[in-house]
Amino acid sequence: MAGEEFLPRRFGNAAALLLMAGDYALRAGAHQIALNDAVSLQEAALPGSVGRVGQSFHYLDGEDPAALPAALPTLVSPFRWRLILRAPEGFRVEEINVLAGRSAGDVITFPDDRRGAVARAAAAPIARVFLDFSRFPAAEALPHSNGDVTVHWYDLRFAQRQDEPGDSRRHTSPFGVWVRLSASGAIVAQGLGPG
Asked: 82 to each of 36, 37, 68, 119, 157, how far by Cα in Å?
């Protein structure tokens, strides 16, 4: 009797492994389609900008620049992918449906600010930790009326539209850090989150 119980369990295990292998194959194929779409979109926006696809992103590294475009899976469906691209204004984030072959949501643009304030703020301890961890950081420097500047870094994997009234930023990310610099360039405050 023990052998009879063992046989259905073997078939169940084999079926589960087969389904899992099929899921991985489906996702690998969908990823390649999404990455091809990302390469096409970035080449159309910035001809000659596609270099080594698939390498790690390195922030503010001129010798080994960001490996973009990138295609990241979403939680919604194995056919919806989030694309992160270089664009003339900085970065562009959009979701596509590989079955439909078109955009599945709003296009979100982020600045790629690298002015002096961004480099100075990158020396803050919280910024160093974030920049070492974040795979796709984007910076935005916002001046204040008293001469201070707040530098926001956003992780583009979690990019979203800014809906807060009175906030001068168009887009944000719940995963980010901010550093406030005085008019003389000294770090006066820093924190986690969109700021």
From this structure: 13, 11, 13, 28, 8
* pLDDT tens-digit readout, 139-173: 989 899 999 999 999 888 888 776 666 666 667 77
Whether the Cβ atoms of residue 45 and residue 87 lie closer than 8 Å to each other: yes
Kindly report the number of other CB atoms within 10 A of residue 62's CB atom: 7
Which amino acid, one-letter code, is at 30?
A
CB neighbour list of residue 111: distance below 8 Å, 6 or more residues apart: 89, 90, 91, 138, 139, 140
pLDDT digits 0-9 by tens, 42-61 = 888 877 766 555 444 444 45
Per-residue b or e along 4-40, where b marks 16 or more CB atoms closer than 10 Å to that residue's CB: eeeeeeeeeeeeeeeeeeeeeeeeeebbebbbebbbe
For the chain, where are the E strands, in sequence order?
70-73, 80-87, 90-97, 102-103, 108-111, 137-143, 149-155, 160-161, 171-172, 176-181, 187-192
The structural domains of the chain, with segments of one domain joined by +, span: 2-109, 114-192
